[in-house]
Design a protein that fits this description.
Elements: H1 7-44, H2 57-70
Length: about 70
C-alpha cells in the first residue's frame, strides 16, 4: 500500500482533479458545438417540405441516406 497522503497532497490532488474536470468540460462543449454545427450544415443541404422544418439528428441522418441514394 502507498503511504497516506498529507493534507497538502490531498488538496493539490483535488485541485488538479477540478482543473482536469473543467478542462474536460470545455473540450467536450467545443466538441458538441462542432458536432451540432456539422448537423446544421448537413441539414441545409437536404430538401424537405417545408424547407425550414425542424428535424432531429436521426431524421437528418436518415434523410441524408435517402437523398444520397436518390442521387
Amino acid at each position: 500500500h502507498p503511504p497516506p497522503l498529507s493534507r497538502e497532497e490531498k488538496r493539490r490532488r483535488r485541485r488538479a482533479t477540478a482543473k482536469y474536470r473543467s478542462a474536460h468540460a470545455t473540450r467536450e462543449r467545443i466538441r458538441v458545438e462542432a458536432f451540432n454545427l456539422a448537423f446544421a450544415e448537413l441539414r441545409k443541404l437536404l430538401p424537405t417540405l417545408p424547407p425550414d422544418k425542424k428535424l432531429s439528428k436521426i431524421e437528418i441522418l436518415r434523410l441524408a441516406i435517402c437523398y444520397i441514394s436518390y442521387l
